[in-house]
Amino acid sequence: MTDAAPTAFEPDPSNLRSIRTALGHFGTGVTIVTCAAPDGPLAMTANSFASVSLEPPLVLWSPARKSARHDPFVEARHFAVHVLKDDQEDLARRAAASGRDFDGIELQHGAAGTPLLPDCLARFECLHYAAHPAGDHTIVLGQIEKVTLGTGTPLLFAQGAFGRFAEWQ
């Protein structure tokens, strides 16, 4: 069996869905970002997370500008990025649907008051370093102030679906 010929196109406003589909072929880990907003703890599921620098230790993530949660995250002085385990898909979906639903979650709080989710694969507590407009998103850079490492295997996201490694060593 042979693979189908690749489809090539130039991005324009008429094919945004195709661009999104193509970008979805890049598998990522799944994170939940939290911050202390003026009206209480706030969460957002994000797969736009990446390391940027080791000196100083910087990470980035990119909230959508159209999100009702955008401004509180971009304006937050501190935030935390939680790398999810493969059994935390429900938590990822919950944070994606509502950034205020913490029922049944024993939130902890970092030194800066940042809400922290328990039992993640890794957690990065960050100080806001910079924010840059980037099309329909904002690139938020954070300087890592504290790292917490857990154990387990990562939750993944690709082609519009959550997944896991078939075998993890």
TrEMBL record:
Enzyme class, spelled out: oxidoreductase
Upper classification of the organism: Bacteria, Pseudomonadati, Pseudomonadota, Alphaproteobacteria, Rhodobacterales
Stored InterPro entries: Flavin_Rdtase-like_dom, NADH-dep_flavin_reductase, Split_barrel_FMN-bd
tRNA processing listed as a keyword: no
Protein name, entry field: Flavin reductase family protein
Domain Flavin reductase like positions: 23-164
SUPFAM superfamilies: FMN-binding split barrel
UniProt keyword list: Oxidoreductase
Membership in a protein family: Belongs to the non-flavoprotein flavin reductase family.
Pfam families per record: Flavin_Reduct (PF01613)
Enzyme Commission number(s): 1.-.-.-
One GO MF term: oxidoreductase activity
